[in-house]
């Protein structure tokens, strides 16, 4: 029983971790993209549609990543090239993604999905209890762990990561030192979109292998909150993602056990937990200000 619960928690947490890591890199570069939900749902519909056409969930996975990345480029063009307001553009991107995905995926509603099968690591997957939970998982779970390690190394151990953080903290000074601010931010936005698309593909190919309109169900907003919860640190994103995943799965098991609490309250529990966490974090203003990129959400125009 406990093993089955942990397996579902891992599956539920993986898209949150992946999407939050992409947004973390984007925000470290000083760009606030509130369109994570829209990019995720476009990745989900793109992955499912291409899988239906090709019969290969791996090709669908690549398509989901591409959909998220292409959608993020639209955001980048509007905010980095045309210098549109990042908050308003991100919200518009989410609404556009939800509407476009509903239209594109209308013919796939009710179609049987092709599930991406788990990959068992020899010997390690045979370990009692831990083996099936950690070493007999889908490829996106392994990618999420690799992304946490890779993003942490990139941001805090590489010269390019140092430049990216410098742009997020003071883009004017970074530009004066010869760092290409706009190009770096474009690459960060593209990475964030690719991660959001990958997270969306996980939903339609693994979590629930089918297409349902608005199947992201607010996970993009949870991923955004998770970045703040983690204080823009990759390892904390991993821990926070599994915490939120446990809350999401816990309420489902509570409903299945017939707990004497209204089901509507239990369904709202993950989002209520998100609000509570953000309220708690906001009280520690000193820690928040220290970790928040100083130029987050601020436009940069080199000739001004």
Description:
The protein has 304 residues and is mainly alpha-helical. It has one domain (2-109, 138-291): Orthogonal Bundle (ABC transporter involved in vitamin B12 uptake, BtuC). It has helices at 2-28, 36-54, 57-81, 86-104, 130-134, 139-157, 159-169, 171-176, 181-207, 219-229, 234-256, 263-283, 285-291, and strands at residues 119-120, 136-137. Helix 2 (36-54) runs parallel beside helix 4 (86-104) and helix 2 (36-54) packs across helix 10. The model has no long low-confidence stretch (mean pLDDT 90).
List keywords for this structure.
mainly alpha, two-stranded antiparallel sheet, 72% helix
SSE order and pairing:
Blueprint: H1 2-28, H2 36-54, H3 57-81, H4 86-104, E1 119-120, H5 130-134, E2 136-137, H6 139-157, H7 159-169, H8 171-176, H9 181-207, H10 219-229, H11 234-256, H12 263-283, H13 285-291
Antiparallel strand pairs: 1-2
CATH architecture: Orthogonal Bundle
Relative helix content: over 70%
Number of domains: 1
Number of strands: 2
CATH fold label: ABC transporter involved in vitamin B12 uptake, BtuC
Average pLDDT, to the nearest integer? 90
Order of helices and strands: HHHHEHEHHHHHHHH
Q: Tell me, what's the shape?
A: globular
> Which structural class do you get from the secondary structure elements?
mainly alpha
Contiguous uncertain segments of 5+ residues:
none
CATH superfamily placement: ABC transporter involved in vitamin B12 uptake, BtuC
Brief characterization of the structure:
This protein is mainly alpha-helical and 304 residues long. It has 13 helices and two strands, in the order H-H-H-H-E-H-E-H-H-H-H-H-H-H-H. Helix content is 72%, strand content 1%.
């Amino acid at each position: 029983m406990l093993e089955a619960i942990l397996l579902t928690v891992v599956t539920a947490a993986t898209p949150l971790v992946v999407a939050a890591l992409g947004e973390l890199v984007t925000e470290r570069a000083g760009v606030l993209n509130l369109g994570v939900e829209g990019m995720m749902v476009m990745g989900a519909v793109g992955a499912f549609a291409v899988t239906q056409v090709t019969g290969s969930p791996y090709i669908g996975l690549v398509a989901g990543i591409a959909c998220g990345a292409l959608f993020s480029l639209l955001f980048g063009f509007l905010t980095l090239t045309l210098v549109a307001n990042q908050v308003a553009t991100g919200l518009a991107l989410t609404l556009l993604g939800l509407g476009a995905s509903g239209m594109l995926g209308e013919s796939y509603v009710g179609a049987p999905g092709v599930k991406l099968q788990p990959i068992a690591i020899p010997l390690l997957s045979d370990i009692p209890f831990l083996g099936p939970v950690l070493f007999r998982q889908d490829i996106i779970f392994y990618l999420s762990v690799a992304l946490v390690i890779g993003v942490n190394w990139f941001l805090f151990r590489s010269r390019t990561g140092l430049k990216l953080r410098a742009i997020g903290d003071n883009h004017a000074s970074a530009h004066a030192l010869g760092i290409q601010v706009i190009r770096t931010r474009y690459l960060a936005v593209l990475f964030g979109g690719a991660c959001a698309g990958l997270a969306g593909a996980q939903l339609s190919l693994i979590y629930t292998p089918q297409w349902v309109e608005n199947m992201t169900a607010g996970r993009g907003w949870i991923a955004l909150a998770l970045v703040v919860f983690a204080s823009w640190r990759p390892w904390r994103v991993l821990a926070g993602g599994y915490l939120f995943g446990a809350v999401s799965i816990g309420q489902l098991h509570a409903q299945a056990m017939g707990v004497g609490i209204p089901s509507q309250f239990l369904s709202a529990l993950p989002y209520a937990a998100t609000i509570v966490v953000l309220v708690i974090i906001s009280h520690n203003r000193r820690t928040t200000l220290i970790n928040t990129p100083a130029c987050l959400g601020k436009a940069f125009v080199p000739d001004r």
